[in-house]
Amino acid sequence: MKKQRRFLVIRTDRVGDVIMITPIVRELRKSFPDSFISVLTRPQTADVFKYNPYINSIITDDLTDDSFWNVVSEIGKNNFTHGLLVFPTERAAFQMFFGGVKKRYMTGFRLYSILTLCRGVSRNKYRNLKHEADYCMDLARRIGVKCYNLKVEMFISEEESLKAEQILKINGVPLNSYKIFIHTGSGNSAPNWSEEKYLILIKKIIEKFNDKNFSIILTAKEMTENFLRKIKDINDKRIIDLSRVLVSLRDLSICISKADLFISSSTGPAHIADAFNIKAIVIHCHRNVSSAKHWGMLNEKSINLEVSEEFCNANCSSDKKICKFEEGMKVEEVLNHIVIN
């Protein structure tokens, strides 16, 4: 009998980045149905994998000095045959090494990859740019997965679905309304509009669709008091602020799963919407690392809007330290893609 393949997939950065490894675990399960599959991620992002049917276990690392050897011990208990370090960190490379993972792979080539005997999988300096999920899948392809299905996904239980409806209902969101989630923050993970521009968008939605049955749900914890005061001054009960209600990633996620439309910059909650197959309108910078080609929504319902190359070349510095994203994407470009029947 062949020895069971035991896979550890590691990504310990932000929510949107971690969602990009959900296609890997699915395709590993399809390629090796009898395998054991674990993910290693941070406690803050572990909820991305809740109820995921392709995963046997979740290991978390809070990235503190005190937890390093605890994680090594946990890895060692599982006798992993393969480790895929998607987001390369020296810490995780040594954890795989000391944890006894037999075959270790990581993105890129670094000194610590040599010291820990990790096989490198190059991104070729992003010269032939492709989607982040595709770059992630390259590690799985290295060990025999043949896949071009990059669909990201999250899962929700029936109880959570009912909980999400209850949260919305209690906070004044009619369940029969067209629910527009607008997430104004990005945690500095991507170029974004100012709150003033999102305010203009909200006013224009109300003006254009005033006779329609819709709700606008605000979810970003970064919203300033000044912005919220201006929202209150609009005096429209169809605008509901859930930013103080959705305190956990999981509560935010299950409520996003009930959206009819999600609007934001290219940030974690947008990828949550993508993972639940929710229509999203997402605004992107033109530069490679932030572009729609690299970070765009993957579901067919969604619309990726990107600042034009001409505008970027004319107004942004070549090193992109000066970015005129605010002026490069008009409110009307988003508004024109909103349809409420």
Describe the protein in words.
With 341 residues, the chain is α/β, with parallel strands linked by helices. It folds into two domains: 6-142, Glycogen Phosphorylase B (Rossmann fold); 158-335, Glycogen Phosphorylase B (Rossmann fold). It has helices at 15-19, 22-31, 68-77, 90-98, 111-115, 132-142, 158-170, 195-208, 225-234, 249-256, 268-275, 292-295, 309-315, 325-328, 331-335, and strands at residues 6-10, 36-41, 57-60, 82-85, 103-107, 119-121, 178-183, 214-218, 239-241, 261-265, 280-284, 303-306. β5 (103-107), α5 (111-115) and β6 (119-121) form a beta-alpha-beta unit. The longest helix is centred in the middle third of the chain and has 14 residues, at 195-208.
Q: Summarize this, please?
A:
With 341 residues, the protein is of the alpha/beta class.
Fraction in beta strands: 15-25%
Main sheet makeup: 6 strands, parallel
Number of structural domains: 2
Query: What is the H/E order?
Result: EHHEEHEHEHEHHEHEHEHEHEHEHHH
Q: End-to-end distance, in Å?
A: 58 Å
Q: What does the overall shape look like?
A: globular
Please describe the structure with a list of short key phrases separated by commas or semicolons.
341 residues; Rossmann fold; 6-stranded parallel sheet; 15 helices; 16% strand; globular
Q: Which secondary structure elements does this structure contain, and how are they paired or packed?
A:
Elements: E1 6-10, H1 15-19, H2 22-31, E2 36-41, E3 57-60, H3 68-77, E4 82-85, H4 90-98, E5 103-107, H5 111-115, E6 119-121, H6 132-142, H7 158-170, E7 178-183, H8 195-208, E8 214-218, H9 225-234, E9 239-241, H10 249-256, E10 261-265, H11 268-275, E11 280-284, H12 292-295, E12 303-306, H13 309-315, H14 325-328, H15 331-335
Parallel strand pairs: 1-2, 1-4, 2-3, 4-5, 5-6, 7-8, 7-10, 8-9, 10-11, 11-12
Helix pairs in contact: 2-6, 3-4, 8-9
